[in-house]
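I hope you will forgive my troubling you with a question about protein structure. Here, with my thanks, is the record as I have it:
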Amino acid sequence: METKYKRKISHYLVNKSLQLHLLGQSLIYMTVIVIVTVGIILSPLIHDMIFVKDLERQYQAAQTLLALAKLLIPAVMILIVLFMAHMILVTHRICGPLVNFTHTFNKLAEGDLTRGVKLRSRDYLKNECDRINQMINAISGIVTCLIADHNKLMVTLQDLKGQVGDLDTREKFEATLEMIRKDAEYVSATLSRFTVENSRPES
């Protein structure tokens, strides 16, 4: 039973370093808020216990403070547990898509344009997911055109190789070269749709 519980928790911690960092920061922030809020609520009683010289009033303030403490401590503990559970769920719905994005980016770096980003119904970052998928589809379309133009160019070159013996006139030779030039222009036009940083030799 304990192993099953640990397995479920691990499923929610898909990016432990980021999720625990966010959880820690949020927990510190919430602790400060709770301390300030409780301090403001209990400040009149603390004032009576410390600064008021009437022993009866000090005693009543102390009794009231102890009674409130018995109620506040469990309430604060329950609040912290609920807050941590909520933060784990929220960070899971953020970090889950981020892990998915990372896997997709790794595939893109390898040249695989077949993987898109798929999120669950309650995950966050859906707009970012749609934009990434649109980007992948656009790049895939450009690469498809580039492959088609390249294949066409290779077919033309292969035909030229087989017809070299039949190109007995300058006009026929120039016409075939013009076909190759146009095919090369198609490839160049497709490549021009990409913007890349010019490689510079190191100084």
User: Anything to note?
Assistant: The chain has a mean pLDDT of 81.
